């Protein structure tokens, strides 16, 4: 069974077609990259997967559940991280993780918090207030929060945008390990092409609300006759694509 199965998803805001006829699947244990320039429709797609926005048309199944009818069963086994969603600032890191852990009814919560503190190097930050952390430290806390319920699907919006290269590498390794150990699927919206090349088995290229191309990073690079995924991205975004067929 696919972890995500999206068919013909469509969403407009007034005259703006934010997402149009989008279909894709993500298998367990894989990472799928959602790429596209500003306004391509990535966040709108993720918001519909989370049940925050209702589609105008199309169907979404997550972990076998139809999100239109049965979304709470799926949401309990999903999680999400975005730098645009702030954690409660006046709570300490530990309190934040505890609040989210209770929301998800995490068994043996204190043990889970210790595991995540170790995996994301948060031990020294547990008693600090979330609002007093640097952007990179907040990002690590947000990622720990995203794994608190041991999700089978993680939706990540720019997970390493504010991290230094060393910490970003450490976090990517942690995400890969979690995915490979648990069989979780990851949908990753990112503007970091090196990250996408490293983590993603499949890439969806969005433009103007549509998926305009898809494939493995290596397959897309070969098909467009470019040196790396960044050049493929630029060719598609600028409309100068000339595929090597
Ligand atoms: N709440 C909203 N009301 C009106 N228009 C919206 C709303 N949300 C998104 N849009 C429009 O829908 C389109 C897709 O936006 P979306 O946020 O999904 O893009 P994105 O790919 O996530 O972009 P970015 O990389 O800039 O985050 C854009 O034209 C945007 O202006």
From TrEMBL:
Q: Which GO terms label this protein's molecular function in UniProt?
A: ATP binding; ATP hydrolysis activity
Report keywords, A-Z. Answer: ATP-binding, Nodulation, Nucleotide-binding, Transport
Pfam short name (any one): ABC_tran
Q: Does the keyword Ubl conjugation apply?
A: no
Query: Where does the record place the ABC transporter domain?
Result: 4-233
- Is Iron-sulfur included in the keywords of this UniProt record? no
Q: Which family does the entry's similarity section mention? A: Belongs to the ABC transporter superfamily.
Name under which the protein is recorded: ABC transporter related protein
- Its source organism is Acidiphilium cryptum (strain JF-5)
